[in-house]
Specification:
By secondary structure, this protein is mainly alpha-helical. It has two domains: 376 residues, no CATH class; 86 residues. The chain is built from 21 helices and five strands. The chain has a five-stranded mixed β-sheet.
Length: 473
């Protein structure tokens, strides 16, 4: 890269880093705190209970699997704890601080910005490369989900790294780039199996390279085997410990929401149109989509986008329920945004440059403003009482206390206590005491006292929370 490219990209990275520092020291009580709490708990328990990659544990004893199996070991068998392992290593050096976990996500996000620039530049030129990077760096939705304590930022990085090295293999014809690409793909699929949708553009890539003889090429089979075998082995392993697999079949089509008006509204209007693109970004997206693809990229990026849309329909209820499920669309979305804005600002005789530049500025302003208006609430701590109560539990109870912290089944409250226990009253209180519960903490003091007929000792009571010692009556 030339010096001016490095300078501009550096400015983008510096800006992206600083906007991601906004409220980086937030406790895990902001948007989607329940999923962040589980992820963070695994890393923290590696410190507390010892590191075992194949035995990731959360704080929660509650039954979350579909078979009603007890989970006495508090297993959390979703993706392998690759992200949590890196967080654990950082915790070993600097101590357990959630902002460290957020910084690790930010670092992977910055790496994704670089890869997006290189991929976009390769096919569409520097202008599209810079704008794609800018959009990924500063779209408010992207900013928030680039500093969460979840594996998604790492997954985005690995998926882009796989695509970048795959193209690099075609350019350099070096086999080790192909192997590297398949390893990155494997890590992507391990972190989020739904990313198997990447095979749609990847198969297209191999077909363009080898034609109908693709299935006879060793390169294709090397990529397929290396990328898929680790996922198959992991899924086989966790099937031996079903008690630690959270319920997931509901994600596909619970409530038969697929193809309904509500589905289309939530995914394409609320999430992509409003939250991610702030309404006005749809103009850039439309322009980027209608531009005829060049010979170099062919339909690769369109198929990438199509694959993600197919994923939206397959995991219909999950995508409607959770807005972070749409994170996977960001990389290809910003590439099309970059193509659209580059089309508007490039000199064309039939287009007034004054009008086009003015339009670009107006669209960008409204796009980012409206998106930020929707995203700003994600940073809010709407229930600070769970943080206050959790810190009190951590201070006033023994380190081996087993805590009941009911919070609508959200584990964020339990996480704040820094104790193992239950996030939901799945049994009568006396049964949980028999199972080992030593303390109960609640953010509804009066309701708790009125519903509990046994006069347990009050460890601490304030207007916002109460802590009961279940060992003492």
């Amino acid at each position: 890269m030339k010096k001016i490219e490095i300078f501009i990209l550096s400015l983008i990275l510096i800006g992206a880093f600083f906007v991601r520092l906004y409220k980086i020291d937030n406790p895990i009580a902001d948007w989607h705190s329940w999923r962040q709490a589980d992820t963070a708990a695994v890393a923290r328990n590696f410190i507390k209970d010892g590191y075992n990659f194949f035995w990731p544990q959360v704080d929660n004893y509650a039954i979350t699997n579909e078979w009603g199996l007890q989970n006495p070991n508090r297993l959390f068998l979703v993706e392998p704890p690759i992200y949590q392992t890196i967080v654990y290593a950082a915790y070993k050096v600097w101590g357990v601080h959630e902002y460290i976990a957020r910084l690790i996500s930010i670092i992977f996000s910055l790496g994704s910005i670089i890869l997006l620039y290189l991929i976009s530049k390769r096919f569409f030129g520097k202008l599209v490369g810079f704008w794609s990077s800018i959009f990924f760096a500063f779209i408010p939705y992207s900013v928030y989900y680039s500093r969460i304590i979840m594996p998604e930022p790492m997954m985005i990085f690995f998926s882009l790294a796989s695509i970048f090295t795959l193209f690099f293999w075609r350019d350099k014809n070096k086999s080790w780039f192909l192997i590297l690409s398949s390893i990155f793909a494997s890590l992507t699929f391990l972190l989020k199996p739904y990313q198997l949708i990447l095979f749609l553009p990847i198969f297209y890539f191999f077909f363009r390279e080898f034609g109908l003889s693709t299935i006879r090429k060793w390169q294709f089979w090397v990529f397929l085997i290396i990328s898929l075998v680790p996922l198959i082995l992991w899924r086989n392993y966790i099937s031996l410990h079903r008690e630690g697999i959270p319920a997931s079949t509901w994600l596909f089509n619970d409530g038969n929401i697929r193809f309904t008006g509500a589905f289309f509204r939530w995914i394409f209007a609320e999430r992509i149109g409003k939250i991610i693109l702030g309404y006005w970004g749809l103009i850039f997206l439309a322009l980027g989509l209608i531009l005829k693809p060049g010979k170099r990229e062919g339909w690769f990026f369109h198929l990438w986008l199509l694959g993600i849309i197919i994923y939206f329909f397959v995991i219909a209820r999950g995508n409607v329920t959770h807005d972070y499920y749409q994170i996977s669309i960001l990389p290809v979305l910003v590439i099309f945004l970059g193509k659209g804005i580059a089309f508007l600002i490039r000199p064309v005789k039939e287009i007034s440059r004054i009008v086009s530049w003015s339009l670009v500025v107006i669209i960008l302003f409204f796009m980012f403003a409206f998106s930020w208006y929707e995203i700003r609430g994600y940073y809010w701590i709407n229930h600070p009482e769970i943080v206050e109560a959790g810190r009190a539990v951590d201070k006033l109870t023994p380190k081996d206390a087993i805590v009941i912290a009911p919070y609508s089944a959200d584990v964020a409250f339990l996480y704040q206590t820094n104790r193992h226990g239950w996030s939901i009253m799945q049994k009568p209180l006396q049964d949980l005491v028999t199972d080992g519960a030593t303390h109960l903490v609640s953010t509804n003091p009066q309701e708790t006292l009125s519903n509990i007929h046994v006069p347990y000792k009050v460890t601490k009571q304030t207007p916002t929370f109460i802590i009961l010692d279940l060992r003492v009556k």
